[in-house]
Amino acid sequence: MNASFDAPKPEINVFYAKNSVPKDIVTEVTLGIEEEGIPFVVLEKENKNARELAYKAAEASHIGVGIGISDEVVLHYIKLKGDTPLFAISSQSNEENLRAIGSNAGRLMKRMPFRDVE
Question: Residue 51 — φ and ψ, nearest 5°?
């Protein structure tokens, strides 16, 4: 008998705070992920704490990489402690920095050097 199953798809999870994040911020972050060619999932959540959202997103990701967006944009990796994300910037940062966070999430997965974030 042949057993068949679908392996979990590797993806970066992007969780953002419901009713408080402009769509263009989410778009800029996800464009950065797309630039690296990595699949991602975007979900709206009730939680308003970007650091908690990022850690929960990393926990739910099959590769352990998550981004949380509210007043901050936070990139987290599951092997780090919950209160020590890789990157955290204001959600009011310029487009280049927002994209860099997304790109860095993809680069983390691909084990490439990070882009600078100011």
Answer: -70, -40
Nearest residue to 109 (alpha-carbon basis) of 82, 83, 85, 76: 76
Q: Is residue 116 part of a domain?
A: no
- Where in the sequence is the domain holding 44, given as residue range(s)? 15-110
The answer to whether the pTM exceeds 0.90 is yes
Which CATH number covers residue 25? Answer: 3.40.50.10150
Output the tens digit of pLDDT for each of the chain's 118 residues.
Answer: 455 556 677 899 999 999 999 999 999 999 999 999 999 999 999 999 999 999 999 999 999 999 999 999 999 999 999 889 999 999 999 999 999 999 999 999 999 999 999 8
CB contact at 8 A, 63 and 11: yes
107 to each of 2, 19, 22, 75, 104, how far by Cα in Å? Answer: 36, 29, 25, 12, 5
In total, how many domains does the chain have? 1
